[in-house]
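Recall that a protein's primary structure is simply its ordered list of amino acids. Everything else, from secondary elements to tertiary packing, is in principle encoded there. The following example makes that idea concrete.
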Amino acid sequence: MARFVLRRLGAILLISLAIIFFCALGLQLMRQPFTNTRSSANMLLQAIRDTQSFLRGLFAGNLGMAWRGSGRTRVAVPVTTVVVDTYVKSMGLLLISLLFASVLGIGAGMLAAYWEGSPLSLGVLTTTLLGVSMPTFFTALLLQVIEITWYQRTGVRLVPVGGFGWDAHLILPGLVLAMRPLAQLARITFVSLTEAAHQDYVRTAWAKGLPTRQVWGGHILPNAIVSILTSLGVSLRFSLGSLPVVEYFFSWPGLGATLLNAIRTRQTNLVIALALALGLTFMFINLILELAYRLLDPRLRSEE
């Protein structure tokens, strides 16, 4: 296990260096697209210098200043302050949406599996198919249009359609961010539980006359948990990838929206720091999930 962790940490370090370099190179390409071999070499050298400069600032604990706001409200703020502030806002939104998706998605999948073949099961699977198929930007626009239309016709505001706040402002971006993970978790939970329920050892348990709670809790759920956990990991990765889109549509001042604005304004250190924060979050989540797989599935430990 220790060797596995060390290998993964080494890979995380190398990928982090690649993120830093390619972010610097991408910003160089935005400033001056290459036209010949000489300009390409100059951009590569500048990207290497930017990478070295960022690493020196990172180890010194000083990544410089970043601009926030626009016009007269534009102020200089330390890059580290921006990263911490936006990271907290993004992770708060992400955790709330995933908690919502996990509870409803796994619960719906369990109900559909328990009543397999019933109208309830068919309804859950049909709804989740729609949830998986709808693009994030379309869901965001649809919910905003519904809320705006409702307000225009009734004069009653149900929820805010944008902005930041740990209150009703969370509802729409949280729903959009949770939509596809919820549908994915419900489908995978249903498939995993129904496959486990049709195994021979489950039939044997029923033949012994074991109560329903013991069959499901002791035989079916433990053998489906790895697939459900894998689906949760995939959902989390998808949510991280959708985060910039959701934050942009709902004006949520998190990592994703700030990263898009930093790219537009070509703030090199801020772009690298935000992209690195997202990348590290993604990689450490993968590491935690892989460790959980090994704890839950002894076959993976024996293979290692």
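Residues 27 and 266 are 7 Å apart (CA to CA). The mean pLDDT is 84.
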